[in-house]
Amino acid sequence: MKIVETYSHLNGWEFLLVHKRKLWKEIQDVIRDIDGEQCKIKVSKEKRSRDRLLYSPVEMNRQFKIRLSARSWDESRVNYWVTSDRKLIQQTLTMPPDDQKRHIEDNGHVPILSYNQTDFVKERVAMEVQFGKYAFVAYDLFVKHLAFFVSDKIDVGIEILPMKSLQAQMSSGPGYYEGELYNVLRQGRGVPAVPLVMIGIDV
Predict the structure, then answer these.
(1) Is 10 helix (H, G, I), strand (E, B) or coil?
(2) Which domains, and CATH codes, for the chain?
(3) For the residues of 7-41, what is the DSSP string, one character each?
(4) Domain of life, per the record (predicted)?
(5) Is 73 helix (H, G, I), strand (E, B) or coil?
(6) What distance in Å separates the CA atoms of residue 121 and residue 154, rounded to the nearest whole number?
């Protein structure tokens, strides 16, 4: 596979080039190493494309996971506690999880354990390979990466997406690079408030 487009949000790509050059090369190598045609294994059952071979998002994710795990990109999870009281949440946002729980209880409310999980993290860089439904991309960009950044677990987030030309040949309706780039740009330069690199790939 190949990188077709990249977008640097809040200097995310520049950060990688200066501080994580080896990781950036590793990401490029992983993408280049995947044979997209081997992922073309899903037989379409849709009326408009019945019996046509399509790219399988499941298989593409599997190929990325094999290669990234072999290079010590590991899943990471950040726990936090929430409650229904807005003021309490604002007070506890920057506290460690144990302090959040205690503070909520001390103020007479019930703490609810929640978490954000990302598939691949290495050396304070988080990466999502997103071939799922389009709504998941917005969650990655505006919730997951931001939560890890605010909690000081990462310095930059990376989102790998299919280009529209690839998405059109996939067996589900994932988000695609051009559409998600538009969604980020229309929020304004500072939103989301986390350095990001969006990568559009194709076969």
Answers:
(1) coil
(2) 2-74+121-202 (3.40.91.20)
(3) EEETTHHHHHHHH-HHHHHHHHHHHHH--GGGG--
(4) Bacteria
(5) coil
(6) 8
